[in-house]
Specification:
alpha+beta, four-stranded antiparallel sheet, disordered N terminus
Length: about 300
């Protein structure tokens, strides 16, 4: 390929985009009509004064944050290099990350690790069987020699895999460029390396999948109600499933005769732990029930953007 040919590698770094421009207002006091009907009030920890409000421009984590989260959650990835014979070679490798999110790979296959040679490392993580965010890091392999770095990486390996790592097999890959994709059928977005290294993985990442499974199995009616009240849509809905949750909101997949649509329902305030997520969910489902029963008026702006994904 000539250097002038258009490709992902030659594209400029895009500025981060957002999918929503609306922010739901913070839920205020329960209406007098609610009090007269004896409805139990659910107080959400997420609405406490200590929690930061979600800005209109930040209803979802940045691409850098999602990439960091994917890399933290994934247990393995694919290292791609050009072999001595000129053929491209891809091998699977388990890995941990250093403090800046750079992958540290265990490479036991002979001839794969070529220090300072251009390499890429592809990582993906399936969310609830419905979406697979992924990122590909371009850089070069290096052999860590600092004892303190090796000790920290060995500790992380023990914690993640429950076994010791042969430090002679550890290689770090630099993070020179990062291509992030929300799913297989989505366009890629280049992430600025400095934004990646300074980003924090989502604080809910280690229990998000369990929470989503719990809400879908035990609170399916509330999931449907939240969608029907918080989203403005004329779709004939067959089913609604929550597919992921992060500190800024919920991701739903809406199934209809016209296909599958993704929709993002943000929190009024960001959350940082499991208690905060469940409190926000209870608050939203309770308010949705009030609106459905005409005990209260909607105290938020409805989400109006749905994206067809299948």
């Amino acid at each position: 390929m000539s250097s002038s040919s258009p490709s992902l590698l030659s594209s400029r770094l895009p500025s981060p985009g957002t999918l929503f421009t609306k922010k739901p207002a913070s839920l205020r006091s329960v209406s007098s009509a609610t009090a007269r009907h004896g409805v139990r009030v659910v107080v959400a920890a997420a609405s406490a004064a200590a929690a930061a409000p979600v800005s209109a421009a930040r209803v979802r984590p940045s691409a850098a944050e999602v990439a960091r989260t994917v890399v933290e959650l994934a247990a393995s990835g694919t290292l791609s290099v050009v072999g001595p014979d000129g053929w491209p070679l891809g091998v699977g490798a388990r890995f941990v990350t250093d403090a800046a999110g750079a992958p540290a790979l265990c490479l036991a296959a002979a001839g794969v690790a070529a220090p300072d040679a251009p390499s890429s490392f592809h990582v993906e993580f399936q969310q609830s069987g419905a979406r697979t965010p992924q990122c590909t890091m371009l850089g070069a392999l290096s052999k860590p020699s600092d004892e303190s770095v090796l000790k920290k990486l060995s500790t992380r390996w023990q914690k993640k895999f429950g076994e010791e790592i042969d430090q002679d097999l550890l290689y770090l890959i630099s993070v020179d460029r990062i291509l992030h994709m929300e799913d297989f059928n989505e366009d890629g977005m280049w992430v600025v390396p400095s934004e990646y290294t300074s980003a924090e993985p989502d604080p809910l990442r280690n229990f998000a999948e369990n929470i989503v499974e719990e809400f879908n199995s035990k609170n399916a009616e509330d999931v449907h109600r939240i969608y029907s009240i918080y989203v403005e849509s004329d779709l004939q809905v067959a089913d609604v499933k929550m597919i992921w949750v992060d500190r800024l909101g919920f991701d739903f997949h809406v199934h209809s005769g016209e296909g599958v649509f993704a929709v993002r329902i943000p929190f009024s305030r960001e959350v940082s732990d499991e208690k905060g997520v469940k409190s926000s969910f209870n608050m939203m489902s309770h308010h949705a029930w009030e609106v459905e029963k005409s005990y209260a008026s909607p105290e938020f702006e409805k989400v109006q953007f749905l994206k067809k994904v299948r």
